[in-house]
Amino acid sequence: MKMGLKINGEFKEFDVDPSTTLLDLLREAGYMSVRRACDTGTCGVCTVLMDGKPVLSCAILALSADGHEITTVEGLKDDEDFQRLLDLFLSEGVDQCGYCNPGFLITAYAMKRELKNPTDEEIKMYLVGNLCRCSGYVGQMRALKKYLGVEE
Amino acid sequence: MRISYFKPGSLEEISELKVQEGSHLFSGGTDLFVKMRYGVFKPKMLIDTKGVRDDPKFDGEKLIIPMNTTYSELLDMGEVMKDFPLLEDAMKEVGSPQIRNRGTPVGNVCNASPAGDFLLTATVMDADVVIAPKMRKMKLKEFVKGPGIVDLKNGEFLYSIEIPRWQGYEHYFEKVGRRNAMNISIASIALLIRFNGDVVEDVKIGFGSVGPRIVMYEDLEERMKGMKLNESLVDEISREYMRRIEPITDLRATKRYRKILVRNLLLKAFHLLKGVV
Known about the structure:
- The complex is a heterodimer.
- By secondary structure, chain A is of the alpha+beta class.
- Chain A has helices spanning 22-28, 80-91, 101-114, 120-126, 138-147; strands spanning 2-7, 10-15, 47-50, 53-56, 69-71.
- A five-stranded mixed beta sheet of chain A has the order 2-1-5-3-4, with helices on one face.
- In chain A, helix 2 packs antiparallel against helix 5.
- Chain A is elongated and about 50 Å long.
- Chain B folds into two domains: 4-164, Uridine Diphospho-n-acetylenolpyruvylglucosamine Reductase, domain 3, CATH 3.30.465; 170-274, 2-Layer Sandwich (Enolase-like, domain 1).
- By secondary structure, chain B is α+β, with helices and mostly antiparallel strands.
- In chain B, 40% of the residues are buried.
- The longest helix of chain B has 20 residues, at 255-274.
- In chain B, helix 5 runs antiparallel to helix 8 (117-124) and helix 11 (231-244) runs antiparallel to helix 12 (255-274).
- The A-B interface holds A 1, 17-19, 21, 39-42, 44, 47, 50, 53-56, 58-61, 63-64, 107, 110-111, 114, 125-126, 128-130 and B 2-5, 7, 26, 28-30, 33-34, 36-38, 46, 48, 50, 72, 92, 95-99, 101-102, 180-182.
């Protein structure tokens, strides 16, 4: 079936089978920052922004995203605030394997736009749907508190 | 097998499609696609309800939540949520931001899982449901018949949920899971209570994940009314809930663990609300 998406500011048309998920579509179209892991709406690595809000692309049917605006890490590479987030992830040594990274970055970027002066607890609650199996989240918390301007 | 997809623009069209064999309605799809991926559910036709759009509203007495309204949309209603603090507490603990941006209360009610956070809270708050296309209205607690079983006839579907405001009531909500909010709970409690001094004027208590449906005991609620909320009453009532509730043992917890948890959740609720025990 025919459908259209605005991905990272660019309008694109697709012809998809109805069972295609948004994750399938994005990866097949070359947006490789969007990762696949659990594929069952639990781990958060497939997080993208849909109309500015974080969603799980593995749990959305491509057709039901028809006409919406999708943002992936690729679309934020020229965004100054996003670059700052990347720099903080590097300087704080957040990553080990890095597989969960794009999902984390997208969720953190959305969190900054949604929460004002969050507490540690609120930051953790916002990240409840993003799993990291290497790090124990200490590095992420360090980087995020700087990014959100809430370091003590 | 090939699945067909439709996104009708009216309630009548949804109803006509729903009559067909193997059809399944969805809005956010957060639950549906997981079930499809695991292969436990194989619909032939997916009906996307998002072609029909009505906004949630508060009419001064009740909150009206139509289909396709997400948790995030409700939580963003700000001022209105101040009149529904129990609902707000429960919805904040649903899944993750990603899930709340897609998942819907109407979907949660239709799944009729006894572990549904929204279903528990709306049941305790004595919500009504409105069923399309004829806009038949009934009590939520009668609508849900068992796990995954709701009172819908051919061509009918849930259009909206109406939740009354419980002014002057204190509330408590907690769910206990193995890891965090993303997990299905082992047991959950939602409680509304109105006091006159130390005396209980009215109370509603519901438990999730400890039976095939949301568990509420009207006679125990009645027994508390007019009584002073003290240690002996809380002890008696919490023991009675523990005795009666018949949960199952599953991979999340044993029956015995759940029974003790039910009592402890009640003790904790009354301790935090009134400093009893």
